[in-house]
Amino acid sequence: MRLKPEKQKPPKGSTIKEAVMELERAQAKNEAEHLRAEIRHHEFLYYVLDAPEITDAEYDRMLVRLRELEAAWPDDVPADSPTRRVGGKVNPEFTEVRHLTPLLSLGNAFSDAELVAFDQRVRSGLPEGSAVEYVMEPKIDGLACSLIYENGRLVRAATRGDGVTGENVTANVRTIRSIPLVLNMKNGAAPPELLDVRGEIYMPRHAFMQLNEQRLEAGESEFANPRNAAAGSLRQLDPNVTAQRSLSFFAYAVGEGARDKHADSLAMLADYGFKVSENYSIVKSIDAAIEYIRDFDSRRKSLAYDTDGAVLKVNAVYQQDILGATGKDPRWAIAFKFPPEQAETRLEDIVIQVGRTGVLTPTAVLTPVRLSGSTVSRATLHNEDFIKAKDIRIGDTVVINKAGEIIPEVLHVVLGKRPEDTKPYAMPQECPECGWAVERKDGEAALRCTNPHCPALGREGLIHFASKGAMDIEGCGPAVINQLLEAELIRDVSDLYLLTKEQLVVLDRMGEKSAENLVKAIAASKEQSFDRLLFGLGIRHVGAKVARLLAVHFGTVENLLAADAEQIAAIDDIGPKIAESVVTYLASPSNRDLLTRLKELGLNMEMQVQAVSEEHPFYGKTMVFTGTMPTLGRAEAQTMAQDVGAKVSGSVSKKTDYVVAGAEAGSKLTKAEQLGVTVIDEAEFLRLLSGAAEVSGTATKEQKLF
Fold it and tell me: Which family is this protein grouped under (predicted)?
C-alpha cells in the first residue's frame, strides 16, 4: 500500500510497563492512521471514480482491523474516521441552520427561445462588449445540500430549505460514502480554512429499484421516483437507515472559497475528492449551449442517475457578482427542463389490490408499450378520486409517462380516441378478496374493506409484522408468507412462533438449512423491543414513531390496555384520531386474545423504564432541545431528560420550562427569549441532571452559540 507504519521506540523516563503500553499505543495509532488513509483512498476510487482497485473482502478486512484498533484505544479515534460514517444517534427532529450565503434555486427555461432571451438578459446586464462563457452541466434530479468544511474537515451539512435556512442533516450526510469527511489535499497542501460545497444528493437508479423491491418485500409502499426516495432517505431520523439507502452526491458549486471561474471551482472540487459530473462543458455562445443540451438529451438515459434538464452558468465569478440575483433566482444561471417522455397505449382493464389496512388500490392494466427504455404494462391509478378527476375508463387510450423516469403513471385520456361504448369506471362496493362491503370515511380518499378478518388484511398484516422495520424476521418475506397461508400453517402472527423446521421444509425453495435459519430468526424476534411489536401489529395510524411514544409512556402492555383515548391523546404528538384508533384496536376481543397469546409465547411486552424521583429539578418539566451541543447528541440529551421525568417537546410555548440551546439554535431560541423561557446550555443541563437544586443562571449568547 502507499503508506507504511513506522517503527516506534519506547519513550524515555517511564517504567517498563508504562513504556510497553505507550509503545503499543503508538504502534496502534500509527497502524490506524495508515488504515484510515488506505480506506479513504479506496472509498474515493470506489464511490467517486467507480474504479475499485481491491475486492470488497479486502476492503472489509481493513475496516474490521481498524475497528479493532479503535476499540482498543478509543481516545485516539478522530471524529472523521471512516468507521464513524455509519451509526449514530436517533435525531427526533432536525435543527435549523442558516446558510453562509443563500442557497439559491434556479429559474426554468423550456424552449430555445427562452434560452436566447436569457442570454440577451445576461449580456445586457454586463458592460457592453463583454465576452461570456457558460458552463453546461446536467441537472441532477435530487436534493440540494450545502457542506461546510473547516480546515479540511466536514463539520456541517444542511438541506436547501428556503434558501436562507435549511435543516441540519450532518449525521445522515456523513454516511454517504461519495462525500469526503476530510478533503483530499495533494502534495501536502494546507486545506482551506472554510469551504462551502454545494451539490445534489441523489439515489442512483439501480439503488432505487433495489430499495423498492425491498419495500415491496416488506409490505411497504414503493417510492414514486429516485428524488422522492433520496429526500426520504436523507431525512430519516436514524442515520443507520440513511446509510443503507445507497445515496450519492455530485458537487456542482462552491459558496465560500470559490475560484475566479466556476469551471476552476469544479476542478478544485474534483481534486479535493468530490464526485463532479463528467458531463460538464464550457461553451462560448448560446447556440453552443443549445447544441450541448440536444446532445445531452440524446444520451442522458444511459446514465446511472436521473436528470431532468441541463444548467447554464456564467463561468466568470466577477460577472456573476455583477448580474446578482432577483428574488431567489440568480440572474447568471438558468435550468433548461426536458419534457417528460410520454407514450400512448390502451387501458385494457382496472384491477384492485387490497393492502394490509384494507385499502383498495386500483391499477391500470395496459397494452404493453415501450417507454423510457423499458416495457410498461401497468400503471398506478392511486384512488377513486384520481380516476374520476381524469375520467379514466376501461377501453380508453391514455397517455402515460414515468414519474422520475421510473414509476408509470397515467397523465390523461385521449378523448378523441374514446370508444363509444365506454362507461365511467365505478370502484367495487365489495372487497374483491372476501366479498364484504367497502366504505369510504369522511376526509379520506381511500375505500376500505369492512371485514376485520379479510384474507388480504391478514396476508398483508403478516408481511408487515415480519418486515425489517417491525419484527425484522429475516427470510420471512411475502413469498414465504403466501406459502404458509396456502399450506394453512398460519392464520395470524402468533402462529409464526409455533412453526417447526419439519413444517417448513415442505415449502417450495425451502431446504433444511433455510428452514432452520427461519425458525431461528422467528425465535430471535421475540427479543425485539415492545415498540417494534406495537408497530408490527399494524394498528391504523400507528407508525414506528407513535409506537415508541406509546411504549415509552405506558411501559407495559397491561398499562396500555387499561388506557383510554383521553390518556393516549394527552401524549405529545399523539392526537385524538390516533388515540381513538389505538383504543378501537385494543378493545377488540380478538386483538386482546392475540396479545395474550404473543405474551405467552415469550414476546417482549415491556419497555425498560427507569424509576424517577419527583424531587428531581426536571421532573414534570417541559423541555425543548435545540441546536448542536458540544458532547451530547440531541436524542441522547432528550432521553436523559425523559429518564428523570421531564416532558420533551418539539416546540417552544409559554408552557415550556427550559430550552436547552446548543450552537446554531435558530428560531426556537429566539422564541424562548421573546417569551422569557429559561435558556440553559449543555453544561447547565448536565449540572441540573445530576440533581442540582436550581439554575445557576441562564446562558449568555456566546454560551448558547458555543
Answer: Belongs to the NAD-dependent DNA ligase family. LigA subfamily.
